[in-house]
Each structure stands twice: as structure tokens, then as C-alpha cells.
Amino acid sequence: MVSWDIVLGLMVLAFALPFIFLHTLITSTRRRASDEHDEVKHMRSMLAELSEHVQHDQSLILEALGVPFLLMRPSGRVVMANQKAADLFGMEQLNNTNLLRVMPDSELKQFLQKAVSSIEKVRIMIPIVRPDGEHIYRATATHLATRERHIGIVFLDMTEEHRTQVIRREFIANASHELRTPLTLILGYLETLLDSSETEDDADMRQRSLQIMKRHADRMARLVSDMLILSRVETPGTTYMKQEDFDLNQLAQEAVLRLESQAAAQQAEVTLALSPIPYPMQGDSFYWSQVLFNLLENALKNNPSPGLHVQISASRDADGTSCICVEDNGIGISQEAIPFIFNRFYRADKTGKIKGTGLGLAIVKHAVETHGGSIRAESAPGVRTAFIITLPKLS
Predict the structure, then answer these.
(1) How does pLDDT run across 111-120, given as a tens digit for each residue?
(2) Same structural domain, 270 and 386
């Protein structure tokens, strides 16, 4: 006979088994769900970390471009941009900024509007004012093959290239003008001598014509010589520059001797005050002789009246810095002209009475800078005019 305890136990077990199974299933499901949640959480964390790395890499790539770049939607909203682009637009950052809405009317905004409306590549030269002055940029906008038709825009700073082209055009125009005048005069006198029968028996006229022709031929030769010197000294990494030891005092004495007759004719006094003597220098002695000669000649040419006193001085500080100065007590230079006196063919005297190629001070400036120095001009008209050269310590 079956015990009631057994039957009762079996009944309890029968009722309990489904609940035990259900509890076990729920517990297992919860455990799997927890594991899957942790896995999803881990995957989300990995995805966020990967996204952060991608953004960081994108930022590095954009900054590594070295030029302003931005990616823009057709609406004008910036998707991504590097810091150089933000600086160019005068903003802290450009991401998510709608440039077409926030920018004032300008050539830059007109370029962006054209880039949005055109399906072709847009490329223009555009001036942009920055804190250090106006720059010329070549801006290129390209539509990318993306679903949202993103527009990539890159800016290349062409300021130096533009300035070089302007200088080259001005140089050619000025040089042509300077050469045309003496050449025209020489040809005119040649035609007179060759075609006029009156000159055959007029020795004085022939002599005067030949002297004028020689004077203008000398002017042309000097101009060509100065142009060649300037071209050499301006060329980066030029092989014409020598590195040699020389005595600046000796070069100064030679410059004074070369201009001795002109100084005597003008009743001008030229003195030297260099310390120490000899004054050791390093560099290309030819170009330093040009520097001293041009500065001394410049003082004499601009002050033809008697009583001029010119002094060439040089001294060396305790730290080895050299200071070379050519000063005079002549008519001086106006403050308005000082910023331009080192430009090619610039003449402070607009009357044309003072002759010269207009390249002397340009040669001086480039020769000094090529040797690692700097030059500036100071002038109190009628009292003192000085050209001051500063050179670093000898290596």
C-alpha cells in the first residue's frame, strides 16, 4: 500500500517542477539578457571610442593639410573644417556654422554662393584681409560624389607669388623706361652724326655729341651692372655669395678713394670712425664694398651743395653684435619717403635732378639681409640722415 507521504511528495513535486523549470528558465534568460546587455554596452563603448579615434584622425589629417580647408553642405552649413579655415574666417571654429547666413556681404561670401549654385569646379583669386594685412588666396570649390553633394573648399595663400609677379612686372616696366631714355638719346645723336652733313666739319659738335652719348652709355652700363648685382643678391641660395674673412676698414677706405674726386668737386668731407682697426668681418667682400660704396655715393648724390659731412662708423658690442652706420648732415629724407627708399627704382627726389639707377639702396638692403643683418634709415631733414646696419655675432 502506497504511503500518503509519498503520494503527497509526488503531488508537491508535480506542482513544483513547472515552477522550478520556469524559475530556472527565467534566471537563465535574465543571465543571457544581462550578458547581452553588457556586450551591447561594451560594443557601444568600443563604437564611441572608435568614433572618437576617427574624429581625432580626421582632425589630424585636416590640420596636416597645412592650408585652410572645409567641407560644406549645399545649405552652407560646415560639416568639418580645420583650424586654419576657422582663422581665415575670423572664427573660433566652423563646424555646424552656416557660413551663408553668418557672413557679411563680401567677395568671399559671393564665392561661397557661387560654389553652392554651380555644379562645376569653381576657382578664383580672392583678397582676404587678415590681422597682418591683405592676403591673396586661390580658392577652389569642388562638388564631391556624396549623397548630400558635399562641397570641398581649399584656400591656397598666393600672396608671395602675387607680390613677386607684381614686383617683376614693375621691375621690367621701370627697367625698360630707364634704358629707353639713354638709348633714345644715343640713337638720336648717332643719326645726327651719320646723316647730317653739317657735323662733318663741326668738330665741337661731334665732340659734344660723343660726350653725351658716352655719358648715357655709361648710365646704361651702370644700370645693367646694378640689375645683375641685384638679381644675384636676391636669388635664394645663390652660389655667388662667398664666405671669406676681410677687413671692413679697408673696404671703407677703398669706397672713399673711389668717390674722392666727386667729394672734392662738391667740397664734401668724408671721415672714417671704425673700432677696432682692423675691423674683422665674414661674408662676401664684393657685396660689402657695394654696400659701403652705394651708401656713400647716395649721400653725395642727394647733397650736391658744398659743406656736406659724411661719416662711416662701425663698432661691435660686448655680445659680438656689429653696428655699421653711414650718416650725413645733408637735406635728409622725408618721413613719408622712408618706408619706400629701399624699393627698386624709387626716388625720393621727384624733380629728376638727382641722377642714378634707383637700384643702389635695393642692392644694399638685399646684400645686408643675405648676410643675416638688417638695415634701417633715420632722418631729421637738415640735421642728420643715417643708414644703420645691424649684424649678428660672427660665427
Answers:
(1) 888 988 888 8
(2) yes
